[in-house]
Description:
By secondary structure, the chain is an alpha+beta fold. It is built from eight helices and 16 strands. The strands form two sheets. Strands 7, 8, 9, 10, 11, 12, 13, 14 and 15 form a nine-stranded mixed β-sheet that branches.
Amino acid sequence: MTQAARPPFATMNGCIVPFEKATVSIMAPGLTFSVLAFEGLRGYWNSAHEQLYVFRAPEHMARLAFSSRVIEIDGIPDGQALTAQTTELARACEMRDDCYVRIQAYIDDLGDMSARGPVATSIICRPRGRVKSFVEGMHFCVSSWRRLPDDVSPPRIKASANYLNSRLAGLEAKRDGYDSAVILNRDGTVSEGPGGCIFMLREGDWITSPVTAGILESITRRTLIEVAGDVGPSVIERDIDRTELYDADEAFYCGTGQEIVPILSVDRKPVGDGSPGAETRRLQAHYDALVRGNLEQYRDWLTPVWGEPQ
Length: 310
Ligand code: PMP
């Protein structure tokens, strides 16, 4: 596993500081009890426009506000302020490349699991290219771990505590020779993968699990529901049974980090002919054009970094 490059700067509570100075207390409830909500966003460099576009910043900020509210991390800056801090940090880091932004809201210093302060926020922005599996695809198993239910630790919020469940599923899959895992919920239907949502093409429709299936309400998923019909079949949200994945013509895994990754097999059973499907490829191309600012009708989803401060 390669170490991620250290960014030169980070934003701590609204101030840009050298990355080494962006530290937390070892007794921070954000660390000791995972009282931490976060977001991961991508920035896309468009060389023809000489512009870096942050994708769907308001939606990510709204989800961060919601996640924070649920776990009672109160008083974080509003979405506009966090977006302005993000673009300012990207400029400070001289970011002219595809990149990844992580924003965290947490309880710092020293306290117990119900501590409500001090509330802290931090942002990092670092170069991050496309994952290799965007082209190559990935092999999935169905995990022996079940997805956290909403009445235990709600997957709908992006809280670091939920990622132990993802880690267990991901580690098991890799140990068993797969690339990643489909995680079933308590009802035995498909929820999502460790860090992204699942779509399958079956009988001519794209199908993805509903928001009540124990998923993070993914912004990539929402985007694809909105745009898939532009270039191919549209998307139906309904429960997915495990064996439907064995019968799917195509399937993919999606999220901010992965974008759209073809699923080549599930439990060693090939999906379609076992190679990335034509509709998946069409959707990948469309997604790339829109996130990079090459489709005028979706420009509202992009926040430019360079030029006038936002
Ligand atoms: N599910 C989980 C568990 C995730 O961690 C992610 C990545 N944020 C997603 C789905 C995809 O969400 P998004 O498209 O908003 O990145």
